[in-house]
Write a structure and sequence with these properties.
heterotrimer, A mainly alpha (296), B alpha+beta (357), C mainly alpha (267), A: 296 residues, mainly alpha, MetI-like fold, 15 helices, C: MetI-like fold, 0% strand
Chain lengths: 296, 357, 267
């Protein structure tokens, strides 16, 4: 039994080597760049580069946009997931068609299309003025960037929440209403708390990347909105101060690690099946497997 | 005793194909009664229960609670609680919070809740389990929590949807006794759904046998077992030999061409009937000493009795007897007139006997 | 009555979000039939961009590179990831947690950081080019395969594998006849996610590609200022439509629909 298990563990060896070579080491390399200056001497100045006015401004705008986008994604995702559950649209159809399908139209083209829709004499304003309202001045604004980021990341918020919520048995919800919970209480007392692992994954996947989407900021912000992603990109493609770019990237990694410590500690560890001495698994009913599927 | 639940002409059709899950169902349940809906899967028993709980609404007919029409009331506004087959505990809450769920929604004071939860945990024999997580409990313990979570709200009626279905045989028997004890302690009306006739016979005051959405027979366990009103009930409750017969006249029935005395009256002369004989009522006797002879095909020792099959004509009789027989030899079958049940043939296909598996 | 209203509101909300997600795609499809090189002027209906789809050598090369990259990286990720999922499944608590942590890094890290980190590492031993892009894509694709497979492996019925061994099947035969069929769904969705993510990626390719290596994404990005070739709209529309049709066939194939209905069946 134990020898068998050891043998099976060996199957992960190629992946272990691969992830050391191409996930772990690259991160160490970036950290090395981050804590040295151009001549290779130790320096924390790159990490502190956040405090320069330009970077600090970009950082604050990025944080603001990321925060707003994350909140909007959550607010859009929950009702949608509930609607999908209510209308009994089946899992695969929903996932593949509705959320994944847009990714098959080229990302940059979609952003360009969004730009056309939002531009001052674009499609949206044709509709708005057609309805007799004042045209919206969305082009090259923070709002346009936010719409773009929400557009890009909404599926990544929705999928994990959808997965945790579709794992909730119908009888558990019936039990809640049977015990006197109104539909609203069922949501806040059962569905929301039970979907927290998915929500956490969603936030972690959406928040940090949405600070860095320099392409979206370029296309929809018209170069007027500088995200931290734009600054990093410029450090590598134009100013070629790789150490500074790495310093800013390392700071972003810090955010990722904070996010991961949430998801991993609260979520992946406890919901991992408890294995006893024999190595047999005791599955925790309901909670089992949520986190590992949360991303997909 | 007054009626607490009344179902009047309740019919439920499925939205997709319009087929009826429950047809023109009429039943009154008295306060404090233990009523069991018994039938094979798909017979409409769970649908009926779900309509009483409020999860499904009848297509027509009405449901009354204490004389008040609750047909359109959502489940959260009914003083009725349910114990689910798969427990349906809230995995994100510990035992205490699971049980306190209903009380908290009623905005009951915290110390009052604490008192009630402690009491009810005592009743279900789980004192001290408050802080445990649901995933650390065994199936039987989870079912106790599910029961506690329901009865702590002191509902007018407790609905139990095959609550022991997921437990193993031994635990099921323990829980049957537990349920009867709890029923006595809390004195709540129980409506219980099961496909297990043993469970129904053991626990119920009254059994409602259902098939294809129609009530086949209602009565106390003894009358259901001893006097099944049709072949379906006879076959579903316990094991039976069901064979075609012809009622020659009162108290005489022709089975496989042999006239056998019985005690039933009131049938038309030469009416085709179903004859029901319980295997334990048949005796193995010497060849020629019984009402019919046959070839012993199989003898299995079951501990308390021998399970014997005897082929007579084109029918294989099923006998449970403490006398053994020899396979391959001829033997006779004997029966007391008292133990023969005569039934009218089913009039419609709805009453038709279905394969029990 | 109330239920009907709620259903109506639900449907309305669903359609609104659907419209939000698909409006830009519609715009692109319309543009692919636009007889004008400008994005903002409608010059009448034409099919010429579809006719000249592959006349441009650069577009042709980028297209085949993108598709080849997506398929190859997904296949490699599928091989490494499937083995890894079995290995991780056999691990105990600590090893399992570490491996899941590492698996989550490419998913949770900002793409720009992943891309830059790989680039900084590659330049030490590997010329940036198609090879470096392939390695990068495999790296971010493996986690999708693992995450799609692990739950399936956990739900898997090992008894039938053991039964087949008991009846005389070799370990290899048992694996291919008993275990693999149970994982088909997970393998397919892992592979599909990997191909999708590879096709959709811009950021990581942007940083790890060398001069002259282009996927459709990086090529379009480079064209933004000088103006996008309308053939790009046509090509993207063709890709989108092809995948759309394939998915419709896979999902709505009669046998699948039946299985789905059975799963949703009233209990």
């Amino acid at each position: 039994m134990d020898r068998n298990r050891k043998q099976r563990q060996l199957l992960a060896l190629p992946y272990v080597l691969w992830s050391i070579a191409f996930t772990v080491i690259p991160l160490l390399v970036i950290i090395r760049y981050a804590v040295t200056d151009k001549d290779g001497h130790f320096s924390v100045s790159n990490l502190l580069a956040f405090s320069t006015p330009v970077n600090a401004k970009a950082f604050l705008i990025s944080l603001e946009i990321a925060l707003i986008c994350t909140v909007i994604c959550v607010l859009l995702a929950y009702p949608l997931v509930m609607v999908v559950r209510r209308l009994r649209i089946s899992r695969m159809t929903f996932m593949l068609f509705f959320l994944i399908m847009p990714m098959w139209m080229n990302f940059i083209l979609r952003m360009l299309a969004l730009q056309m829709i939002l531009s001052n004499n674009g499609i949206l304003n044709m509709i708005v003025t057609g309805l007799g309202f004042q045209p919206l001045a969305l082009a090259n604004t923070k709002a346009a960037v936010i719409i773009g980021v929400v557009y890009d990341y909404l599926p990544f918020m929705m999928l994990p929440i959808f997965n945790t919520i579709s794992d909730i048995g119908e009888d558990v919800l019936e039990a809640a209403s049977d015990l006197g919970a109104s539909p609203l209480s069922v949501f806040f007392r059962v569905i929301l708390p039970m979907s927290l692992p998915g929500l956490k994954s969603g936030i972690t996947i959406v928040f940090v990347p949405s600070m860095t989407s320099f392409v979206i900021a370029d296309i929809l912000g018209g170069g007027k909105i500088q995200l931290i992603g734009n600054i990093i990109e410029q450090e590598f493609t134009r100013s070629t101060n790789w150490n500074l770019g790495s310093g800013l990237s390392a700071a972003l990694m810090l955010f990722m690690l904070v996010g991961m410590s949430f998801t991993i500690k609260d979520d992946i560890l406890p919901s991992h099946p408890v294995k006893d001495e024999e190595g047999e698994k005791k599955e925790a009913p309901g909670g089992e497997g949520i986190s590992r599927r949360a991303v997909l | 005793m007054e009626n607490i639940i009344e179902l009047k002409n309740v019919t439920k059709r499925f939205e997709d194909d319009g087929s009826a899950a429950v047809k023109d169902f009429n039943l009154s349940v008295k306060r404090g009664e233990f009523v069991t809906f018994l039938g094979p899967s798909g017979c409409g028993k769970t649908t009926t229960l779900r309509m009483i709980a409020g999860f499904d609404t009848p297509t027509s007919g009405s449901i009354l609670l204490d004389g008040r029409d609750i047909t359109a009331l959502p489940p959260n506004k009914r003083p009725i609680n349910t114990v689910f087959q798969r427990y349906a505990l809230f995995p994100h809450l510990n035992i205490y919070d699971n049980i306190a769920f209903g009380l908290k929604l009623k905005k009951i004071k915290e110390d009052e809740i604490r008192k009630k939860v402690t009491e009810v945990l005592e009743i279900v024999d789980l004192a001290g389990f408050e802080k445990r997580s649901t995933s650390t409990l065994s199936g039987g313990q989870q079912q106790r929590v599910a029961i506690a979570r329901a009865i702590v709200n002191e509902p007018e009626v407790l609905l139990l949807d095959e609550p022991l279905g997921a437990l193993d045989l031994k635990l099921r028997q323990v829980m049957q006794r537990e349920l009867m004890r709890i029923k006595k302690e809390v004195n709540i009306t129980f409506i219980y759904v099961t496909h297990d006739q043993g469970e129904a016979l053991t626990m119920s005051d009254r059994i409602v046998v259902m098939n294809k959405g129609i009530i086949q027979q209602t009565g106390d366990p003894v009358s259901i077992y001893d006097e099944p009103q049709n072949a379906f009930v006879a076959d579903f409750i316990g094991e039976s030999n069901i064979i075609d017969g012809i009622m020659v006249r009162d108290r005489l029935v022709k089975i496989q061409g042999v006239d056998v005395p019985c005690v039933d009256t009131g049938f038309a002369e030469n009416e085709a009937v179903d004859v029901v004989i319980r295997p334990e009522d048949l005796d193995i006797v010497e060849e020629g000493a019984g009402f019919i002879d046959g070839l012993v095909t199989e003898v299995i020792y079951e501990g308390a009795y021998y399970d014997i099959r005897v082929m007579a004509g084109d029918y294989e009789w099923h006998i449970q007897s403490n006398m053994s027989a020899t396979p391959g030899k001829k033997a006779g079958l004997a029966i007391l007139p008292d133990n023969i049940q005569i039934m009218h043939k089913p009039r419609s296909s709805d009453e038709e006997i279905i394969e029990k598996d | 009555m109330k239920k009907k209203l709620l259903d109506l509101v639900s449907r309305f909300y669903f359609i609104i979000i659907m419209f939000f997600l698909y409006a830009p795609i519609l715009v692109m499809i319309v543009l692919s039939f636009n007889n004008s090189r400008s994005r903002v002027v409608w010059g009448g209906f034409t099919l010429q961009w579809y006719k000249t789809l592959f006349s441009n050598r650069q577009i042709r090369e980028a297209f085949f590179f993108t598709i080849g990259l997506a398929l190859l990286s997904a296949v490699i990720a599928l091989l490494i990831g499937t083995a890894a999922a079995f290995g991780i499944h056999a691990m105990r608590r600590r090893g399992y947690a570490i491996m899941m942590g590492v698996t989550n890094i490419p998913l949770l890290n900002a793409d720009i950081v992943t891309g830059i980190a790989l680039m900084l590492w590659f330049i030490r031993f590997l010329p940036l080019g198609s090879g470096s892009v392939l390695i990068a894509h495999v790296t971010f694709n493996i986690p999708y395969v693992i995450l799609a497979l692990l739950p399936k492996i956990e739900q898997m019925n090992m008894a039938i594998y053991e039964a087949s061994r008991d009846l005389g099947a070799t370990a290899v035969r048992g694996f291919f006849t008993m275990i693999l069929p149970q994982l088909t769904g997970g393998l397919l969705s892992g592979f599909f996610m990997a191909v999708t993510m590879s096709m959709d990626d811009f950021m990581i390719t942007y940083f790890t590609r060398g001069a002259g290596v282009n996927t459709l994404s990086t090529m379009i990005y480079g064209e933004i200022r000088k103006g996008i070739k309308p053939e790009m709209y046509a090509l993207s529309t063709v890709i989108f439509a092809a995948v759309f049709l394939i998915l419709i066939c896979v999902n709505f194939w009669p046998s699948n629909r039946k299985a789905e209905k059975r799963r949703e069946g009233i209990i």
